[in-house]
Specification:
- With 243 residues, the protein is mostly helical.
- The chain has one domain.
- It contains six helices and two strands.
- Strands 1-2 form a two-stranded antiparallel ribbon.
- Helix 3 packs antiparallel against helix 5 and helix 3 crosses helix 6.
Length: 243
């Protein structure tokens, strides 16, 4: 049945959120590590210059990251390159999740459209046969249930469609800001629009540091999902999910 397809795709998309949140958390952690490593390189580089000026200076480390000074520059470059490769892999995974979401949304839409076409053809037959068949009452009950099912399916589709658009915008902003650190210009605009919608008023865009913006994304995805459901879900949709 079409409604079963829509419900199944809805649940599959909801399950994708766990993977999306996990990837965003990993990107945030890797980016924070890279920022710390690059800052440590800058500081230890200054320390190395000072030590070179004094033959009696001791090569000591004030913190664990200071150990980078003991390794050749190529090793540090390898660490940064590995971070870059890992983040790229996570971005590809995010892209695949977004594509899967789009595919499942399309499948749900097609199932809903088929149900709508079948309903249009069957309602006329049901109305005519109800006048002449002993089971006319049952036919009428089924015909009255169809609009409720359609309303529930449309609500589920609306949730998936809005979340799909938001995720698409988020991933595009994420790619842009990761390529142009250290400020999160695009992500800041996304987050600002979110707060504007929640508060019902416009506000100026405060450009966040990339690390700060990334830390907010996992929780923001979950909150946006709840916002989409609160905006579109109706009783008929909850009944479909519970069935």
């Amino acid at each position: 049945m079409a409604e079963l397809v829509v419900v199944q795709r809805f649940r599959e998309c909801q399950n994708l959120l766990d993977s999306i949140v996990a990837n965003l958390s990993a990107i945030s952690n890797l980016t924070s590590q890279r920022i710390v490593v690059e800052e440590a390189i800058r500081r230890t580089g200054c320390s190395a210059d000072s030590a070179a000026a004094n033959d009696n200076a001791l090569r000591c480390c004030t913190d664990p990251l200071g150990m980078l000074l003991a390794f050749p520059e190529s090793a540090v470059e390898l660490i940064i390159a590995q971070h870059t490769e890992d983040v790229s892999a996570l971005l590809r995974s995010l892209g695949k999740s977004q594509q899967m979401w789009c595919s499942k949304l399309q499948q749900a839409k097609e199932a809903s459209q088929q149900r709508q076409q079948q309903q249009g053809a069957s309602m006329t037959k049901a109305a005519a046969s109800a006048l002449f068949q002993v089971g006319g009452k049952e036919c009428k009950e089924k015909s009255t249930q169809s609009p409720q099912v359609m309303l529930g399916m449309h609500a589920l589709l609306a949730v998936l469609a809005q979340m799909h658009g938001w995720l698409q915008e988020l991933i595009l902003a994420l790619r842009a800001d990761l390529a142009n650190p250290p400020r999160a210009v695009q992500l800041s605009q996304c987050l600002t629009r979110y707060f504007s919608q929640m508060e019902g008023a416009g506000c100026c865009t405060a450009i966040l540091p990339l690390e700060t913006a990334l830390e907010q994304l996992p929780e923001r995805v979950q909150r946006e999902w709840e916002v989409c459901k609160a905006r579109h879900m109706v009783d008929e949709a909850w009944v479909l999910l519970a069935s």
